[in-house]
Structure formats: structure tokens, C-alpha cells
Design brief:
CATH superfamily of the largest domain: NADH Oxidase
Largest sheet: 4 strands, antiparallel
Number of helices: 8
Strand content: 5-15%
Oligomer: single chain
CATH class of the largest domain: Alpha Beta
Strand order of the largest sheet: 1-2-4-3
Shape: globular
CATH architecture of the largest domain: 3-Layer(aba) Sandwich
Order of helices and strands: HHHHEHEHEHEH
């Protein structure tokens, strides 16, 4: 009798696979590529002087360009700082380029952004943060180190880089071949129970 039930179980299992009804369970068992990148990415604070290739730069900029923004208003601009002269100039506004061969500066223009009608909240900075996140994750997907830098003098950047006139600089993203491993602090995260509230 057990052979009968075993056979029936096999048939039921095959039927589920054929109908794809067990697809969510099969997918859940395997970590997605995105999740692997999100977990492995870390804030790199030391880079080799190896220049980025044009293909790497193109991929990173395309990831930034297709990032979602509120109402698709795209009130964001990216400046690629990679010439020795420009990198030296940028060091006048921040101590945190970490020797990267390229720094992606992300700025936003609030007057071009979506505004929440209930309280007047302007979405420009959030949009810029999403673009910056795309820069970091695509850089990581390409095997490059990256870090979000928020410590800089925005007035100095606007003065030294007239191209940024009219924009608020939100963040800098040094990118390059990593020359330092992740810190011991990287894996510290709140538990799901502490982080999430189900209502």
C-alpha cells in the first residue's frame, strides 16, 4: 500500500511542477542575484588607482538614468568626476574620495520635482537617493567598490564646479577597484522582528 501512496505522491509532485503551482516555493529557496549583491555590497574606503573602463562607466550611468523618480519628473543630474584635475579640485570640498579613480556626483533640482500635496514635501532629494542607490548597486554588480559620501561642502562644490549651478548636491559616490575589505561592522543588522512591524 505504501508503494501506491509513494506513486501518488510522485504524480502529485509532477503535476504541481507541470502547473508551476510550486514555483513560488522553488524561487524562494534560491537567493536572487539582487539579494546576493545587496548583501555583499559594502562601503569601500580604499581604492586602487586603476581607471574605470568606458564600458563600466556606461553601465553605471545607464543604471542611474533608468532609476525611478516620483511622477517620472527626473529632477536629478549626475556629474562624472574623473580627470586628475577635477578629482584634485573635488578634494577641496571633501576629505572622502578615498583615492577612487572616479566620483559620481548626484544633485537634484527641487523646482523640477514632484511635491506631495498633503504637506508640501518635495521629492527631489529622495529621487536623487534612488539614483545614487542604482549607482552603488550597479557598481557592485560589476565587481567595483563604492561608497556613499555625504560629508562635503556643497557651496564649495557649486563654486568650484560651475556645471552644478542650480542644483543641490545630495551625495558623492567614489567608485573603483577595491583595495580594502569590508569592515567588521558591515554585517550588523537589526533582526527582522525588530526591523519590521506587520499591521
Amino acid at each position: 500500500m505504501s508503494k501506491f501512496w509513494d506513486k501518488l505522491s510522485d504524480i502529485t509532485h509532477l503535476h504541481k511542477r507541470a502547473a508551476f503551482s510550486d514555483l513560488p516555493d522553488r524561487i524562494a529557496a534560491k537567493e536572487s542575484t539582487f539579494m546576493s549583491i545587496a548583501k555583499e555590497r559594502y562601503s569601500c574606503r580604499k581604492f586602487k588607482d586603476t581607471p574605470l573602463t568606458q564600458l563600466q562607466i556606461s553601465h553605471i550611468l545607464e543604471a542611474a538614468r533608468v532609476a525611478p523618480t516620483a511622477m517620472n519628473k527626473q529632477p536629478v543630474h549626475v556629474w562624472l568626476v574623473k580627470s586628475p584635475e577635477a578629482l584634485a579640485k573635488l578634494k577641496g570640498a571633501t576629505d572622502y574620495t578615498y583615492g577612487a579613480p572616479a566620483v559620481f556626483m548626484v544633485g537634484c533640482k527641487p523646482e523640477d520635482a514632484w511635491v506631495r500635496k498633503y504637506d508640501g514635501k518635495n521629492g527631489a532629494e529622495v529621487d536623487a537617493a534612488i539614483v545614487g542607490t542604482h549607482i552603488m548597486l550597479e557598481s557592485s554588480a560589476l565587481g567595483l567598490g563604492n561608497v556613499w559620501v555625504g560629508s562635503f561642502d556643497p557651496a564649495k562644490i557649486n563654486a568650484d564646479f560651475p556645471e552644478t549651478s542650480g542644483y543641490e548636491i545630495v551625495a558623492l559616490f567614489p567608485v573603483g577597484v577595491p583595495a580594502a575589505e569590508t569592515s567588521t561592522n558591515h554585517g550588523k543588522r537589526k533582526s527582522v522582528e525588530e526591523f519590521v512591524t506587520e499591521i
